[in-house]
Amino acid sequence: MSFLAHDVPLTWYLLLSAVLFSLGVVGFLIKRNIITMFMSIELMLNAVNLSFVAFAYQWHEVKGQIFVFFVMMVAAAEAAVGLAIIIAVFRVRATLAVDRINLMKL
Amino acid sequence: MNQSLHIWLIPLLPFAGFLLNGILGSRMPRWLVSTIGLLAPFFSFVLVLNAYALTSISAVSCTGCGSATAVALPYVETFPHPWIAVGGLRADFSFFLDPLSLVMLLVVAGVGFLIHIYSVGYMAHEEGYARYFSFLNLFLFFMTVLVLAGNVLLMFVGWEGVGLASYLLIGFWFQKQSAAAAGKKAFIVNRIGDFGFLIGIFLILVNFGTLNFNQIAVGLALRAGWHGGVLTAICLCLLLGAAGKSAQLPLYVWLPDAMEGPTPVSALIHAATMVTAGVYMIARTDFLFNRSPFALATVAIVGAATAIFAATIALAQNDIKRVLAYSTISQLGYMFLACGVAAYSAAIFHLVTHAFFKALLFLAAGSVIHAMGGEQDMRKMGGLRKKLPVTFWTMTIAVFTIAGFPPLAAFFSKDAILYAAFVQGTGGKILWFVGLLTAMLTALYMFRLWYMTFFGESRTADVHPHESPWSMRAPLVILALLSICGGWIGIESFSAYLAPSVGLHPAVSSNPHLELILAIFAFLAALEGWLIADKYYRRKTERPAQLAAALPAGYKLLANKYYVDEIYDTVLVKPLFAVSRYVLGWIVDTAILGGIAWLLAGVANLSGMILQRWQSGNLRSYAAWLTAAAAAVLLFILIAQGAIPMAEPLTHIMGAGH
């Protein structure tokens, strides 16, 4: 049994995860710059990853860790596609303010 | 013994011709189109002759050829895989050759081939040459399927198919409004008859459990006491189908209009072969009709009534092809009359001779029309005897044949029918008398046509008639020879040949004196008709007009064909249109169905207008909604599990961690 498992209870991990997730949500909602919003999404994903790892460690289950790999993979793909879109948008509109990217509106 | 006759090729060759000419014909030169169009029916005819030769050898003892080449009738060819096998129903692609279908095939393929030859000359200057030949081959395909079919369902396929080919060829000049309308009329009137046929097929299937002709006959033979009842219903349904296809009362109205098609088509489809399909069908199902005296009597009455009805109309028609059309209806009435007195072999005998002389009449009329540059009104003809010698002489033979003069073909066949009617008791005497009267009228209107067309002076100045090319004259001459000799085989030997299929003709087993007396009566009737026509249309040509003026009501009634078209229009067509337009069109379609559709569209439109406010295009508002919704779902799950105070499970977990 490692040092962490005995000294840091699961609740703390979960609390940290919840705080990170909430920060991500709030950041996503109030920020206007797409890149910042993007980083907020990464924050949310990693908050979830943290709780996965914590649960996996707590219950000696490897499934949670496998899930984390999946999430990381999706996040990497999302980053690649998202950044490409952001660059393309910036080239056309010369702005990253999300309020002004509203061509799809009726 | 098991030598194959390859009768499956008989329909298939014309079908190949149809495909070739139909798909590639418009890009091929005319000589190639004609070659394909002629070769297909020619080889079919050769196969039919081959089948006839091989099946007749066993009957006539042939010392040289031995029994190995002989094939016994009935002969069946069945495609090994079933066509339809559903539940108890099984229908095959099976072709059935017996004396009846063989005789019919000889007529269809033989006359069909001659008319194909004639068409080469007649259609030489027409647009759509390849289309014409592909349709003609298509007709031959379906007609041979109809004749060879071993079960009712396959016969129905051929039956519908010839209707289709007939429709296509009536409307061959589809740019002409009247031709297109005539095609539709033929198709729709035939639908009524086909409806009856179809119901008859269903009734057969329900009551016999099979559609195969032989098995139906066997099923009937097992139940010897079964008469009338459902059999009458089946027969009346079949009769309705036959009346539609063979233009009998009350469904005859399509045939005169069908004359809008090219004349060789009128000769092949609307005189010699397709319209006789109804007679063939009744003869084919004779075992059913024989069990239902009521249905037989109905057939006889329909036939006799049609015969005299159409003959009277023909008296007052001026279009040469329409006279022939009504004459066809009248002659088909004779055949039905013969079927109705169970003299099927006499009906088929008349069918054969009729195919010869009526095809000849039509082809000769076509030659006249061709020479007159498309003119069909007999009032504008006259004096063509010198200018069209071949046409005149062949037409003369045909006119004398249909009028029933000995020793030409129709004398024998008509005589056989009248005799069979006469020996059928009191009702038969009436039928015989109607038939005799019709024979007189037939002679009258045919000689009227003859005199108006070929005698007197030409009534049109600016036409220079010319004799037709050899391709048109050769079939005329061959058919004229057949019209002369076709009856010499005699009803006795013809009936004996057909006996395995339809039973013997009553004439075979009774007295020759009566037959002779009746024949003299028929001859006198024909002579009377000729003399009247001679008086009115040659010697005193002003008399018909005077007579028409003296009896305006009677003349108008005949000239307007008893107003049957008008009556059908008022009683059936107009009300049907009114119901379609007002009840179905306005109330059902526009008001009810349209209203429902309008209501649904309105609901969708309204909800769209409300929901589009969410679609703001503002990414952060979407995110806010997403978050709020996720929070709501989470809250809902927690409440549903009763776990809002999270303490209990968490403390449990923490306890486990320690």
Task: Chart the SSEs and their pairings.
The complex is a heterodimer of chains A (106) and B (658).
Chain A: H1 3-7, H2 10-30, H3 34-59, H4 63-93
Chain B: H1 9-24, H2 30-57, E1 75-78, E2 84-86, E3 89-91, E4 94-97, H3 99-122, H4 129-148, H5 152-170, H6 177-208, H7 213-222, H8 230-245, H9 254-257, H10 263-272, H11 277-284, H12 286-289, H13 293-315, H14 320-340, H15 344-371, H16 389-403, H17 409-422, H18 425-454, H19 470-485, H20 490-502, H21 512-539, H22 543-550, H23 552-559, H24 564-611, H25 619-640, H26 647-657
Antiparallel strand pairs in B: 1-4, 2-3
Protein model, in words:
- The complex is a heterodimer of chains A (106) and B (658).
- Chain A starts with a helix and ends in a 13-residue tail after the last helix.
- In chain A, α2 runs antiparallel to α3 and α3 (34-59) runs antiparallel to α4.
- Chain A has four helices and no strands.
- The longest helix of chain A has 31 residues, at 63-93.
- By secondary structure, chain A is mainly α.
- Chain B is mainly α and 658 residues long.
- Chain B has 26 helices and four strands.
- Chain B has a two-stranded antiparallel sheet.
- In chain B, β2 and β3 (89-91) form a beta hairpin.
- Chain B is globular, with a radius of gyration of 33 Å.
- The interface between A and B is medium-sized, with 18 and 14 residues.
